[in-house]
Design brief:
- By secondary structure, this protein is an alpha/beta fold.
- The protein folds into two domains: about 210 residues, Spore Coat Polysaccharide Biosynthesis Protein SpsA, Chain A (Alpha-Beta Complex), CATH 3.90.550; about 90 residues, no CATH class.
- It is about 50% helix and about 15% strand.
- The chain contains 13 helices and nine strands.
- Strands 1, 2, 3, 4, 5, 6, 7, 8 and 9 form a nine-stranded mixed sheet that branches.
- Strand 1, helix 1 and strand 2 form a beta-alpha-beta unit.
Length: about 325
């Protein structure tokens, strides 16, 4: 194991209810073509600790293993950061995994420009163990990663792709443990506002599982916490232009919350709640498609529900077909 902190990358893997995936995550970190790594697994009060330990047993002596009471993803990552000996910290969620040259490509960027504090890349999105799309296809990235482009979500840093200067992340105050969701969004914004320089490369080097049960699965709650992050940024000494961006993003996310509640209520067959959410959203969202949706919900709610379910299945099928045709499947 490398002891030179200047070239060492500390890989921090939070572990909570991921015993069925953790071996794949750890193996992908240990099998990197960039070999100067240490792997730190943080058991964040995992309720299935015996299963987690059994999954990690083959890696004994090759990883650092920590246990702590549950503090959420922020607390788990912070514990790993404090134990890290490397100049750089790479984050990997316990249910994600890397391609073998992920760290090599990230470190090339950092070596080419030593002033960079964070690099990230594209991800392959996986549902039910099947790749179905790439993150940058769904969210094209702005060429310049700045505080403003992070605010507007024209740049979106997936945590499992990020390799970060340990000094820069500590200087920014590390992850805010008051957030259980969007803690990474808050972290990158604070780093950028403090002057950290960031960039990305377009290759998809990380496989990210889309969970149906994890913290990110509740899209309404994710958006509510995103609003909390925006409100936190508004308390910083931002410019008048940045304050306008924050206000606009809060208003837009509020509308998206109503749309998410509308979709959830439709799926559940709660037409009263769906109409309430539609009424709130329609005061801001005025395109013709949404207007037709609201009208259909009022006139024929059951038909609207069937149409929504069919459209969702069609969209998922279309993504899967596009992925299959891409030649990357």
């Amino acid at each position: 194991m490398c002891t030179d902190s200047a070239s060492l990358v500390s890989v921090v893997i939070p572990a909570y209810r991921c015993s069925q995936y953790i071996a794949q995550a750890v193996a992908s970190a240990l099998e990197q073509s960039y070999t100067h790594v240490e792997v730190i697994v943080v058991n964040d009060g995992c309720p299935e600790t015996p299963l987690l330990k059994a999954a990690l047993a083959p890696f004994e002596g090759r990883i650092h293993y920590l246990e702590q009471p549950t503090r959420g993803p922020s607390g788990a990552r912070n514990a790993g950061i404090l134990q890290a000996r490397g100049k750089y910290v790479a984050f990997l969620d316990g249910d994600d995994y890397w391609c073998s040259d992920h760290l090599t490509k990230q470190m090339q960027l950092l070596r080419q420009d030593p002033s960079l504090d964070l690099v990230y890349c594209d991800t392959v999105l996986v549902r039910n163990e099947q790749p179905f799309d790439r993150a940058f296809t769904m969210e094209p990235q702005s060429a310049n990663v700045t505080f403003d482009t992070l605010l507007t979500e024209d740049c979106a840093v997936s945590t499992s792709t990020a390799v970060v200067s340990r000094e820069a992340i500590v200087r920014a105050g590390m992850f805010d443990e008051n957030f259980r969701r969007c803690e990474d969004f808050d972290m990158w914004l604070r780093m950028s506002f403090g002057g950290a320089r960031m960039t990305y490369h377009p290759d998809a080097q990380v496989y990210h599982r889309i969970s149906q049960t994890g913290l990110s699965a509740d899209r309404w709650a994710m958006k509510r916490d995103r609003i909390r992050v925006y409100q936190k940024m508004a308390a910083l000494p931002v410019s008048s232009q940045q304050r306008k961006i924050i206000d606009r993003m809060v208003a837009m996310t509020e509308t998206l919350c109503d749309v998410e509640q509308l979709k959830s209520a439709l799926i559940a067959g709660d037409y009263a709640l769906a109409n309430e959410a539609a009424a709130r959203a329609s005061s801001h969202k005025t395109n013709w498609k949404f207007t037709l949706t609201v009208m259909g919900l009022r006139i024929a709610p059951r038909l609207s529900r069937r149409f929504h379910l069919a459209r969702t299945r069609w969209q998922e099928g279309r993504r899967s077909a596009r992925w299959s045709q891409s030649g990357l499947a």
